């Protein structure tokens, strides 16, 4: 009988089957909601923990990453998100395009002078608590470009970094390892101290009036934000 | 190259020219050519800084040099110099260098921008990094470094240790300063530098009139990693080769390495064994497929926000290629596999396994390409987004110095693999793909068909490698431990990278490091055409046009 013809007969009862739910599930919770964790709890569906620990556990297992591509490493980062490596397996596979929705920022590439203030701004826009994974040698020290006139000698000059993943570029497996290590740290409630970094955004008017500042005085307003790179002091 | 004394100049002028063409050029330039130079790739004419526009427009209109491939600026002890590397789209082996010296005290030279639109950005870069000023340039600002930068880093007396200030200020609407006014009808929109559709850290300053793009200005330099400085401070033999991998980092490493390898091998007169050339050709084409796959995947992402299907499919195929390349070179992305005079090592053992894996990939490719055509190019929504959007007319493309799939999508039949043969390409059977559509769709199709052509090349290379006699498998020529090309030898050599013509200019100064190392990046020139393609169109078409240009910021900014 084809489905577009009206059905002529109703064989079974049309009474609401309210009584079957218990019968279907049987004792205890619904099988479909069961898990190893649930089994471990046994008969008691309650656990007692500290709220902080619970929150850290939740944070570690659901990290929203910032979609942030800078340089070569971002290609390997895309491979990490994509098929085969699939970072989503670890609850960290939803790249968010807006920093305001993200918890974790992977810095995948060389930071140069022009980009430094922008990266700082993007980092500042992320809500607390926030974590940073530095991907590749460039975020550690400037990597192969360390000697460059325009290259910031490591992302840590500008923002705090929780995990460094070395490599040029690191393999996707290495990045996954770094992300897992970060999860571990978050679950334990550890993060890098946020301290004042060598390169900060400051108002132009607050800078000491040295030769460079005086030279630029007619180009930059007093209350414009600037980042001052003291290359000679860089590591 | 030093122009030397009067008598030397005279003797150079009386040298037998390499063809009748040079006599014609001499006649065309007349008194405006004040001296001659010989570059390894091309004859050079020295002209006065005030004659640039007249000479270049004569050369373009009368002699057919319609491709300003690159502008190199450099500082000597006694002068600045700008070199305009000219070519013909019809025959890129017909090259010409126009050398424009200016004094150190007053480095002002006429701008070539009115003749070749591409000179706009090239001259801004020369001003930014070297400090040559171009008179008559419409907008001579810094391009790679922040506007508040002090000094010109590749000029002679630059002190890298000095502090620098970089501002973080709001960008101004160039058309209307305050778009919040009640009677204002344009809106200023920053796209980037952190934005998923810009393929990296590009910043596009856009002015919108309603949903129509009124003005577009790409702002680059957020990934300017001083690649030229790095190459100038490395030795020819081993220290430069790792850097090309990081220009166009979308797995196009071997294609880039070839650009350097070709330039230095021609400069130092190194003959590469044929077997190594076949390996190079195969590896380079694998890279091209990987690169085009990424272009396709991210383009689908841009055009219909497809993170789940097309993007993942292209990455699946890239993973296969990266595995193959890893077997070959030892690295997934930054191969550092080419050596001056060959490649680092032979194919991996057991060879049969490598051949089998490579052939498996090639066997599966046609089905995959058909799948892409089903998913992408046959998709009605995709076609609506792409056909007749981002139109780039062939003449405009030429004037902007566009190359690669961008210019081939506009119907210009220009591919250095065929027109200026290197490696093993001239002995293999394959075709150059061109499309007449001039739109985003044509560029995408061009890339997809190039993937199939690359597969043909790889297949033939595999056949050759399989049958190559075991005792003739030389992977490297005998190259001295230290390379010191003669002082003041200059060369400009280009190869067909994944994005287009990737050229390198090297001037040797007698040491084991280059005196000047200039990179001509295809993306840098291609990106310039963005304004031409998207002004007057809708904002989604701007995103599609940007995606179809397939830029890589590592190569744009270098």
From TrEMBL, chain A:
Keywords carried by this UniProt record = 4Fe-4S, Electron transport, Iron, Iron-sulfur, Metal-binding, NAD, Oxidoreductase, Transport
Q: Where is the composition biased (Polar residues)?
A: 1-18
Record-annotated membrane-spanning stretches: none
Q: Name one GO biological process term.
A: electron transport coupled proton transport
Which terms in the GO cellular component ontology are assigned? respiratory chain complex I
UniProt cofactor(s)? [4Fe-4S] cluster
Which residue ranges does the record assign to the NADH:ubiquinone oxidoreductase-like 20kDa subunit domain? 72-182
PANTHER family reported in the protein's UniProt record: NADH DEHYDROGENASE, NADH DEHYDROGENASE [UBIQUINONE] IRON-SULFUR PROTEIN 7, MITOCHONDRIAL
Q: Which NCBIfam families match?
A: nuoB_fam, PRK06411.1
Instruction: Give the family this protein belongs to, as stated in its UniProt record.
Output: Belongs to the complex I 20 kDa subunit family.
The identity of this protein, by name, is: NADH-quinone oxidoreductase subunit beta
What does the organism's lineage look like at the top?
Archaea, Methanobacteriati, Methanobacteriota, Stenosarchaea group, Halobacteria
UniProtKB/TrEMBL annotation, chain B:
Q: How does it sit in the membrane?
A: Peripheral membrane protein
Where, subcellularly, is it found?
Answer: Cell membrane
> Can you quote a single GO CC term?
plasma membrane
**Reaction it catalyzes:** a quinone + NADH + 5 H(+)(in) = a quinol + NAD(+) + 4 H(+)(out)
Q: Which InterPro entries does this one have?
A: NADH_Q_OxRdtase_suD, NADH_quin_OxRdtase_su_C/D-like, NADH_UbQ_OxRdtase_30kDa_su, NADH_UbQ_OxRdtase_CS, NDH1_su_D/H, NiFe-Hase_large
Keyword Transmembrane helix belongs to the record: no
Q: Name one GO molecular function term.
A: NAD binding
List each copy of the NADH-quinone oxidoreductase subunit D domain by range: 308-558
Its subunit composition reads: NDH-1 is composed of 13 different subunits. Subunits NuoB, CD, E, F, and G constitute the peripheral sector of the complex.
Q: Which family does it belong to?
A: In the C-terminal section; belongs to the complex I 49 kDa subunit family.
Its name, as the record gives it, is NADH-ubiquinone oxidoreductase chain 49kDa
Q: Which organism is it from?
A: Natrialba taiwanensis DSM 12281
């Amino acid at each position: 009988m084809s489905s577009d013809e009206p059905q002529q007969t109703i064989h079974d009862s049309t009474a609401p089957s309210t009584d079957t739910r218990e019968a279907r599930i049987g004792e205890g919770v619904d099988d479909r909601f069961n898990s190893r964790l649930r089994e471990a709890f046994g008969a008691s569906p309650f656990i007692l923990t500290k709220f902080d620990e619970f929150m850290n556990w939740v944070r570690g297992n659901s990290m929203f990453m910032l979609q942030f591509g800078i340089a070569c490493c971002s290609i390997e980062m895309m491979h990490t998100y994509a098929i085969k490596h699939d970072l989503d397996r670890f609850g960290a596979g939803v790249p968010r395009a807006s920093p305001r929705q993200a918890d974790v920022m992977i810095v995948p590439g060389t930071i140069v002078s022009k980009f430094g203030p922008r990266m700082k701004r993007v980092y500042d826009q992320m809500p607390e608590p926030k974590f940073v994974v530095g991907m590749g040698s460039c975020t550690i020290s400037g990597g192969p470009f360390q000697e460059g006139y325009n290259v910031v000698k490591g992302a840590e000059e500008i923002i705090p970094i929780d995990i460094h993943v070395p490599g040029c570029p690191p393999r996707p497996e290495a990045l996954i390892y770094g992300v897992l290590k970060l999860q571990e740290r978050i679950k334990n409630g550890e993060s890098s101290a946020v301290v004042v970094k060598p390169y900060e955004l400051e108002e132009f008017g607050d800078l000491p009036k040295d030769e460079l500042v005086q030279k630029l005085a007619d180009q930059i307003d007093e209350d414009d934000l600037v980042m001052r790179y003291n290359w000679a002091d860089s590591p | 190259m030093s122009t030397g004394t009067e008598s030397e100049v005279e003797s150079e002028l009386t040298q037998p020219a390499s063809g009748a063409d040079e006599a014609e050029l001499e006649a065309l330039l007349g008194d405006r050519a004040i001296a001659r130079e010989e570059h390894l790739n091309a004859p050079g004419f020295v002209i006065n800084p005030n004659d640039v526009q007249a000479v270049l427009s004569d050369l373009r209109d009368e002699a057919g040099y319609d491709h300003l491939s690159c502008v190199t600026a450099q500082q000597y002890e006694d002068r600045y110099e700008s070199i305009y590397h000219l070519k013909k789209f019809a025959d890129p082996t017909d090259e010409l260098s126009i050398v424009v010296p200016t004094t150190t005290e007053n480095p002002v030279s006429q701008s070539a921008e009115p003749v070749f639109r591409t000179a706009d950005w090239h001259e801004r870069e020369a001003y930014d990094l070297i400090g040559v000023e171009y008179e008559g340039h419409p907008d001579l600002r810094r391009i790679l470094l922040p506007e508040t930068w002090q000094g010109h880093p590749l000029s002679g007396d630059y002190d890298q240790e000095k502090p620098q200030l970089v501002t973080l200020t709001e960008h101004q609407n160039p058309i209307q300063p305050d778009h919040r006014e009640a009677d204002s009808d344009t809106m200023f929109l920053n796209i980037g530098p952190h934005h998923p559709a810009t393929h990296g850290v590009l910043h596009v300053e856009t002015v919108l009139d309603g949903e129509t793009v009124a003005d577009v200005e790409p702002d680059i330099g957020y990934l300017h990693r001083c690649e030229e400085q790095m190459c100038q401070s490395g030795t020819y033999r081993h220290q430069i080769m790792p850097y090309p991998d990081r220009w166009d980092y979308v797995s196009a490493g071997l294609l880039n390495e070839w650009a350097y390898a070709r330039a230095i091998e021609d400069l130092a007169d190194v003959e590469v064994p044929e077997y190594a050339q076949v390996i190079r050709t195969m590896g380079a084409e694998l890279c091209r497929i990987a690169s085009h796959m990424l272009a396709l995947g991210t383009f689908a992402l841009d055009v219909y926000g497809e993170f789940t299907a097309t993007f993942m499919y292209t990455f699946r195929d890239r993973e296969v290629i990266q595995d193959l390349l890893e077997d070959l070179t030892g690295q997934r992305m930054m191969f550092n596999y080419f050596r001056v005079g060959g490649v680092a090592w032979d194919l991996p053992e057991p060879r049969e396994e490598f051949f089998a894996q490579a052939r498996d990939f090639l066997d599966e490719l046609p089905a995959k390409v058909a799948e892409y055509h089903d998913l992408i190019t046959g998709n009605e929504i995709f076609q609506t987004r792409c056909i007749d959007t981002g139109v780039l007319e062939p003449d405009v493309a030429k004037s902007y110095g566009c190359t690669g799939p961008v210019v081939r999508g506009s119907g210009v039949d220009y591919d250095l693999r065929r027109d200026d043969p290197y490696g093993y390409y001239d002995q293999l059977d394959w075709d150059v793909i061109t499309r007449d559509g001039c739109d985003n769709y044509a560029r995408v199709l061009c890339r997809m068909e190039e993937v199939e052509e690359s597969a043909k090349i790889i297949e033939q290379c595999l056949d050759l490698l399989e049958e190559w006699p075991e005792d003739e498998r030389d992977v490297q020529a005998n190259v001295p431990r230290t390379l010191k090309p003669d002082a003041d030898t200059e060369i400009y050599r280009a190869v067909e990278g994944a994005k287009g013509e990737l050229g390198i200019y090297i001037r040797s100064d007698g040491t084991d490091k280059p005196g000047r190392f200039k990179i001509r990046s295809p993306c840098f020139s291609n990106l310039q055409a963005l304004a031409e393609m998207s002004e007057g169109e809708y904002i989604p078409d701007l995103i599609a046009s940007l995606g179809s240009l397939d830029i890589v910021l590592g190569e744009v900014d270098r």
